[in-house]
Amino acid sequence: MNIPATHTFLTRLLLVPIFIGCGSVPSVAFAQTGPSAAAAQKASDQIDFAAAVVEYDSNTETVTAKGNVIVSRDGYTLRADNIIWDRKSGRVFAEGAIRAIGPEGDVAYGDKIELTDALKDGVIDNLLVVLADESRLAAKRGARKDGIYTLDYAAYTACKVIDADGCPKKPSWEVKAVKVVYDPSKKRVVYKGARIELFGLPVIPLPFLSHPVDAKAGSGFLVPSIGFSRNNGAELEQSYYWRISENRDATAAITAFTGAAPLGRLNFRTLEKNGAIELSAYGTYSNRINTSGTSTPVGADVFRGYLEGAGKFQLDPNWSISASGRYASDRTFLRRYDISRDDRLRSTFAAERIGDNSYFSLAGWAVQTLRVSDRQGLTPIALPEIDYRLRMDAPIVGGTIQLQANSLAISRTEGQDTQRAFSSAKWDLRKITGLGQELTLTALARGDVYHSDENASTLTAIYRGDSGWQHRAIFATAADIKWPFVGEAFGGTQILTPRVQMVAAPSISNLNIPNEDSRAVDLEDSNLFTLNRFPGYDRFEDNLRITYGLDWALRKSDFTANINLGQSYRLSNRESIFPDGTGLSDKASDIVGRSEFRFKDLVKLTHRFRLDKDNLAIRRNEVDATVGSRGTYVQAGYLKLNRNIGPTLEDLTDREEIRLAGRVRVARFWSVFGSTIVDLTDTAEDPTSISDGFDPIRHRLGVAYDDDCLSLSLTWRRDYQPVGDSQRGNSFLFRLAFRNLGV
After folding, report:
1. How far is CA 714 from the centre of its chain?
2. In angstroms, rounded to a whole number, what is the distance separating the alpha carbons of residues 496 and 501?
3. What domains does the chain contain, in order, with CATH numbers?
């Protein structure tokens, strides 16, 4: 019987009596006694079938379908040029453009395929399985039983096997194994006798390899990390990733060294409904060297470690709590094991409420110093710090009023203790005049109360203040006017904005008050027009001054430029409280400015400077530049602070340094990269410096390969500054990462 299928729907109607597994007569009889049960049986037994031509041989009970054949049952679909169904044996044979699609989205291609009529089980020749994440499994022969694939002498890769032009290409890496088992329901591939081939060369044997094949991470071993450092010798790190649940995971790692005891690491992360937490811990046993530079051990085979954690929870739309903590067993552990180069570790907590017009914070923090010359007992502990602010519309005069209340308690185990509380009210009014001028009026009133003791333990005299109870009142007013002029220039739009500000504040008792948060003061373009050019709250600028400046901007389709220049002049004869060298100690301040230029996405140049008011000598010169594309670029940074500051101010030392970094793409996927930091400080900038004016800090040079499925790099780094058991010398790191493969 030859049935030309002129319409797919007609074909399906004609084949329904054939493709019901129990035959048409029993089905009809069953339907008369139990319609709902019969419908369920019909849905489970029926094969959905579509083809251009269908032939049925009643003698052999075989169905032959030809021409774009589609067969589906229970979520499994088979497409082929020709399909033969033997109803007696329950076997389905297909050939020509075969595609077998499973309910999980995996697609199997082959030359010939033999399946059961449930379409779950069978054998495929020249099998290619394309997984849901587009990675591929290939084998000469494979079998599928209960939806699980078993492949003999197979290969797996997550790389693309065709290029942008549609031409075949060799994958960067592939895993070859004696046997491969893929379970679509578990989204996992398990190998036996596996090895990784990199650019066609077998490089890593992996006898117990398994990995997930979807976007979700799965438990398993990660790619080992190989390196060498002057401190610990050759090193090999092996990590295991544990997918605890959909919102929690953990990573455990052991790093073995040839020159030190192994280092253990544990990381835990959880993402909850209202927040997240991340915790890390490191630990080992090793010798500790005195940070004074002597070779005398201060501990033989003692425990050394590091703890770090952070978390934040949003309790409701307004309230949140957060905390972070960092603690190291000694001052050189982080540097020796290349975990961090921070010289201070800060631990914090905060509870905050942010409303439409209000803010509340209850916070605290503590610091562990890792600096060789610092005494831990002099580092501050803030507990608590309370801050509340309320913003409201100002009646009658207009504008806004911000009310603030703040308190802070700072304690030290071996140094000065300070407690502070203040309340303030600040009024701001912004208007646009009829001539287009932007006028801002500000008024501030604040009252402070301080208490301190053990003030003599603070090394810098101007930071101490008087012991016992102190109080002060602060009043300040300001008027700021900007007048922008807009016009065409150089094929674009230019904006020229003169700006003038007047600030008046009566004499304030500053030096009687301890200075905890207003120490690192320096005139910059960012604070030139602020009401108080001291950072923090412990110092307030009390004088009558005028500040003037000019902003110029140019906007074009592919180019932008911004230039700012300004200076201030003190109108009163009151003695300045600013230290020498800050640019603000005389009646006329130094001249500060900033310029920024951008050309498309290829060039970005930022220059910040400060010029001496008397002789235009450069007191601050800071340049940051990036030139190039994403694949090939050069970054340069230069900083020189030559402010003539004496050694009495610990927070304001002069220095000079240069930073260089770059990457050059030498081929489509290959690139060379490097960076360096050089300390150029000498006695001209810092009289206490023992540097010769060219003191390298760190160099880095490497080569990297990156494509759609593989990243590898080899990096050489040299450190020049030894501290304790963190020695100067060379380090090498080899990094290898495969897409979809933890290993």
Report:
1. 22
2. 17
3. 48-223 (2.60.450.10)
> Does 224 sit behind a cis peptide bond, omega within 30 degrees of 0 on the bond before it?
no
Residue 272, SS3 per DSSP = coil
pLDDT, greater one: 276 or 15: 276
Using alpha carbons only, what angle is made at residue 17 by residues 16 and 19, rounded to the nearest 5 degrees?
A: 65
Nearest C-alpha neighbor of 260 from the set 235, 282, 280, 239: 235
Terminal-residue alpha carbon distance, the chain:
56
Tell me whether residue 737 is exposed, middle or buried, using C-beta atoms within 10 angstroms of its C-beta: 0 to 12, 13 to 18, 19 or more: middle
Q: How far is CA 31 from CA 24, 35, 42, 438, 543, in A?
A: 10, 5, 10, 85, 100
Q: What count of other Cβ atoms lies within 10 Å of the Cβ of residue 54?
A: 24
- The tens digit of pLDDT for each residue in 51-90 reads 888 888 888 888 888 888 888 877 788 888 888 888 888 8
Q: Which residue has the higher pLDDT, 349 or 112?
A: 349
- Residue 687's pLDDT band (boundaries 50, 70, 90)? low
Residue 365: the pLDDT is: 95
How many C-alpha atoms does 429 have within 13 Å on its Cβ side?
A: 13
Residue-by-residue DSSP string for 175-226: EEEEEEEEETTTTEEEEESEEEEETTEEEEEETT-EEE-SSS--SEEPPPEE
pLDDT value, residue 295:
42
For the beta carbon of residue 288, count every other beta carbon within 10 angstroms.
20
The pTM of this model reads 0.78
Residue 646 binned pLDDT confidence (cut-offs 50, 70, 90): low
> Do 264 and 285 touch, CB atoms closer than 8 A?
no
CA atoms within 13 A on the CB side of 176: 12
